[in-house]
Structures are given as structure tokens and as C-alpha cells.
Amino acid sequence: MPPAMPPADTPPTTRPEQELDAFLEAHPDIRVVDMVMIDQLGAARGKRIPVEEARGAYRDGFRLPGSVLALDATGETVEASGLLWEDGDADRVCHPIPGSLLRQSWDMRGAAMVQLAMRDHDGTPFYACPRERLIAIEARLADLGLTPVVALEFEFYLLSKTRDERGAPLLARAPGRSEPPQTTAVYALDDLRDFDAVLSDIAEACRDVGIPAAAATTEAAPGQFEINLHHVPGAVHAADLGVRFKQVVKGVANLHGMDATFMSKPFHDLSGNGLHAHISLIDGRERNIFADEDPHGSPALRHAIQGLADTMAEFTALFAPHANAYRRMQPGSYAPVSPCWGVNNRTLALRIPSSSPAARRIEHRVAGGDANVYLTLGAILAGMHKGLTDKIDPPPPTTGNGYEAHDPSLPLEWNVALEAFRESHAARRYFGDRFVDLYYTCREHERRAFEAVVTPLEWQWYLRLS
């Protein structure tokens, strides 16, 4: 298992350039380095610089405008964020995160990438950075003497580089096949063999950059796959690995002439992509506090469940960050629509997987595949922390079909979810007022712009009718 990336505020024990020196000695063909900041939507933003300039970035920091963390999905800065005109679109100093420098083996031009941590003008961690929000929330559990152990599951589609006449995505055609996959075949080995070249290269690239990835499986739709990352201690570390993983999948797919997408619902008639998080908590003696002979887990697990259920509606805007994400959250779709829980039941938002007592954990199944992994884990840890401190037991577990047992109660419309997030005491307690207001402002700006567009479907349905 690779060492965890330390938090951005960990003081260096050696000269920052030493990591770069060792890396370039091992990879002398590196020509460029991508300096990467992860924004609110989980997108990689930044600059590509010649390798000769990287030493200065490691020594003195690298400057990016704070507004890079106040963008909409199109990459435009949201003026109402307060990080553009009011701030003079000011630069802030960013420092490479130790342990995040990696070779992009899928880029034949000799490229590396390193992730950045942004500092505010006074040298403190910048409030708008999603990674810094997760660091702060994880610290609250550390104050209780607890460390999260996290495993992430990512679903994605492999797509053709071409689009249909409407601009809609098309499934990728496997090498040697005359047409893309046509049928849904969960756990189909034939489909894995068809795409073995790209999936094997993804697995190899994951090994190269220290991502503990399991084997791929086919999912509930043609062309859809799932790859799980093995559990690691530390939520920030797990999220860092998740960021790396998505870059690997997209990069390797591109090398094979395909696109990869983690978009929540790229096809209206096919399964959506989810991001599932498996989490347990270990104490100072490395004991899992959720462990219990009872399949429902320990009292601590049930308290954590209640905290997650209490905060789920308020945090839905983080699990489903944009318009398309709400197309995935439909009854009967394996995407949760109510904060219910139970044992070994995939129709529920909070699933206790079948396991040995020592491996007892919670699987959180709400987030879309395109959710920001830092904010997703931050929301989950916040809910757990609230539950552990409130010490309230949840209602009885659900058995059978959760969609039939519970009416939808999560906010399944974007505007409702955003308002719930803005008004949430829990969101402000754990993420901070400034971050909550910034996130709401950026997403609400994007929502209004999205809903102002007249779509081809409206012309088709209403033009002649009216």
C-alpha cells in the first residue's frame, strides 16, 4: 500500500525539491508537469508547465487565481462568488502536495502531474478548496481518537470518440468488434474479454501510480464497468487515490481511442454511474468500532447510521452536484431516494454489507459517479461524526425492496437540494459558512443558466402545439 499523502498543512521534513529530484531521476524523459487543482465539481484545473519550471514551483509555490475554485461546469468564473471582481481575481500561492507527483503513463509526450494545495493571502489553507474541507472534517474524528478506513467503488462508461447527430454519446466499440455492446450483462466475462486491452492497461497504470485497484466487473448496462479501490486508512488519502484513479481511467481510455465518463446519467434508458463509499472507523488500538457479531453492527455503527440519515437530505447537493445527477436518482434505479438502511440490501441508501464481524462497515450509496470525492467523503464523515456525538439510534432496518417500503424523501430536484444545503446547520457546522455560501452561489448560478436554455425536445414537443 502506498504511503498516505499528508495533509497540505503538514510541515515538510526535507526540501520540497527533493521529491521532484528523485522523481526526475527515475523518469528522465519527463518534459512537462501538469499543476492540478481539484475544483468544486471534482474537475482538474490548472496549468501545464515545462519541467524546467517545476523546481521553482516546488521551492517557492505556484500561483493560481482563487477564482479557479469558483467555476461553473463550463469553466466560467461565477461573478457572484466574490472571488472575481471584489478580489481583483487575485492569485494565491499553491504548493505541491507531497506524494501526489506521478507520471502520466498514458501520455506519450513525457508528462507528469502533481496536485496542489492552495493557501489564502494570510498563509492559511484556502476555505474554498474541497480537499481542505475534508482535512478539517476528518480532524474532528481524529479528536475522538478515530481514523476512517475507506474503500471507494467507481462506475463508468467507455464511449466512442464520435457522437450521434444530436451530439449524444455512443458506446465504444471493442477492438475486433463491428458494433458496440448491445445488451446488459452484469458480471459478463465475455464483455470483460472484449475490452481486456483497455481494462488491463487501466490496471497496469493504477499499479504504476500506487492505486490499490481491484479487478473490473461489468455493470448493469452495456459498456458500463465498475472498478473498486481497496480499503485504505484515512479519508483524505482515499480521496487522493480516487482523484488519481479517475485521471488514469480517462487517460488510458483516450490512449485507446475512447472516452471514459463518470457522468451520473449519460443515457436516459441505461443505468447511471454511482460512487459508493465503504467506511469503517478504527480507534487508537486499531479496533474497528463498528465490529460486532450482530449483522447490524455495534451501537457505534447504528449511531453513525442515524447521523448519516439525519444529514443526507441536507448534503444531497454535494452527492448530486448538477442537473444531470438528479436524472440518476429515480425509484427502482439502484440510486437511493430515501435515507433508509439495512443489511446486505442494495435497494437502500445505507447498506451494511455481509461480512465477518471484524470487517463490519457502512456502504454509502447515494453519490453519483461525477461527485467531488473530497466533498462526498466530507459529507459522509460529517454525518458519522454527528451520529457518534448525538448517540441516537436509528429506526429498525429495512428488509426487502426499499423503494416499496419508503416514499422518496430526499430532495430529488436540484433547486430543492441547493436550498436544503444553504439552510443546513450541519453543512455550516462542518463545511463552514464561507464554503457553504460559495458552493450554493456557484451551483445556483449554474442551475439558472442551465434552465434558461431552450432544448430541442421543447421545440419537438411544443413548437407546433402552441
Structure description:
The structure is a single chain. This protein is globular. Strands 7, 8, 9, 10, 11, 12, 13, 14, 15 and 16 form a ten-stranded mixed sheet that branches. Strands 1, 2, 3, 4, 5 and 6 form a six-stranded mixed sheet that branches. The protein has helices spanning 16-26, 51-60, 130-143, 189-194, 196-208, 235-255, 299-319, 325-328, 373-390, 402-405, 414-422, 425-431, 433-451, 456-462; strands spanning 32-38, 44-50, 62-65, 91-96, 102-103, 111-118, 147-163, 169-171, 213-218, 224-229, 232-233, 258-261, 275-282, 341-343, 350-352, 362-364. It folds into two domains: 17-126, Glutamine synthetase, N-terminal domain (Ubiquitin-like (UB roll), Roll), CATH 3.10.20.70; 139-431, Creatine Kinase, Chain A, domain 2 (2-Layer Sandwich). The protein has 466 residues and is an alpha+beta fold. It contains 14 helices and 16 strands. Strand 7 and strand 8 (169-171) form a beta hairpin.
Shape: globular
**Total DSSP helices:** 14
The string of secondary-structure elements, in order, is HEEHEEEEHEEHHEEEHEEHHEEEHHHHHH
Which class of secondary structure composition applies to the elements?
Answer: alpha+beta
Which consecutive residue ranges, at least 5 long each, have pLDDT under 50?
1-8
The main sheet comes to: 10 strands, mixed
CATH class category name of the largest domain: Alpha Beta
Record field, number of beta strands = 16
Number of domains: 2
User: Radius of gyration, Cα only, in angstroms?
Assistant: 22 Å
CATH H-level superfamily of the largest domain: Glutamine synthetase/guanido kinase, catalytic domain
CATH architecture of the largest domain: 2-Layer Sandwich
Instruction: Give the helix proportion (percent range).
Output: 25-40%
> Whole-number average pLDDT?
92
Termini separation: 63 Å
CATH topology of the largest domain: Creatine Kinase, Chain A, domain 2
The percentage of residues in β strands lies in 15-25%
